[in-house]
């Protein structure tokens, strides 16, 4: 099975000015594409050659895991963004209020987790086996699937996600990220 770079659900310049076309050209067009290319090269001739991305993540380690997880993480990240702002669906708002007290408290906690993450990685809104929402961060290519957690929303906090637009100001990037969240995608993941 050959894995392919996902097609973005919007144009490269659609998230500007909050996330520039240049950022997407590098982050999506180069970083994400490289993970796809590396994964295909690494699985050729192995037991993972015909495996789904999900199965590779759960059953591999080392370079194969790192590249498969980065493909998954980036696919999830891009799908979680939209240039078209909409109201938070009632179901999502109710779930966030139940878990965090309010949408604003969720935002504060998520931003704190993302900004406080040391080094490269990801900030996730996840659902555990009891359908409780929580915020976790993972380093490098790690993701919640390996901890039996269901991803709901993710923010990439590797520097290549924001350095072109805001340099080293991760908090500014997080403010922009919250203006781009695809709440309909979040709602789908809660279903």
TrEMBL record:
Residue stretches making up the Manganese/iron superoxide dismutase C-terminal domain: 91-189
SUPFAM superfamilies associated with the record: Fe,Mn superoxide dismutase (SOD), C-terminal domain, Fe,Mn superoxide dismutase (SOD), N-terminal domain
InterPro entries according to UniProt: Mn/Fe_SOD, Mn/Fe_SOD_BS, Mn/Fe_SOD_C, Mn/Fe_SOD_N, Mn/Fe_SOD_N_sf, SOD_C_sf
Pfam families linked to this entry: Sod_Fe_C, Sod_Fe_N
GO MF entry, a single one: superoxide dismutase activity
Keywords: Iron, Metal-binding, Oxidoreductase
Superkingdom: Bacteria
UniProt: Mn(2+) binding residues: 27, 74, 156, 160
Residue span(s) of domain Manganese/iron superoxide dismutase N-terminal: 2-81
Reaction catalyzed: 2 superoxide + 2 H(+) = H2O2 + O2
Family: Belongs to the iron/manganese superoxide dismutase family.
Subunit comment: Homodimer.
UniProt function note: Destroys radicals which are normally produced within the cells and which are toxic to biological systems.
Protein name: Superoxide dismutase
């Amino acid at each position: 099975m050959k894995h392919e770079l996902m097609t973005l659900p919007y144009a490269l310049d659609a998230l500007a000015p909050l996330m520039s076309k240049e950022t997407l050209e590098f982050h999506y067009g180069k970083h994400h594409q490289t993970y796809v290319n590396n994964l295909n090269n690494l699985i050729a001739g192995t037991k993972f050659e015909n495996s789904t991305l999900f199965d590779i993540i759960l059953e591999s380690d080392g370079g194969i895991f790192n590249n498969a997880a980065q493909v998954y993480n980036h696919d999830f990240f891009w799908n979680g963004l939209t240039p078209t702002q909409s109201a938070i669906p009632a179901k999502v708002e109710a779930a966030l209020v139940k878990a965090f007290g309010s949408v604003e408290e969720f935002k504060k906690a998520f931003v704190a987790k993302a900004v406080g993450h040391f080094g490269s990685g990801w900030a996730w809104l996840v659902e555990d086996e009891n359908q409780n929402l929580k915020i976790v961060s993972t380093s490098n290519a790690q993701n919640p699937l390996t901890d039996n957690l269901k991803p709901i929303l993710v923010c990439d906090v590797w520097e290549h996600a924001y350095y072109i637009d805001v340099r080293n100001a991760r908090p500014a990037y997080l403010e922009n990220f919250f203006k781009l969240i695809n709440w309909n995608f979040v709602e789908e993941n809660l279903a």
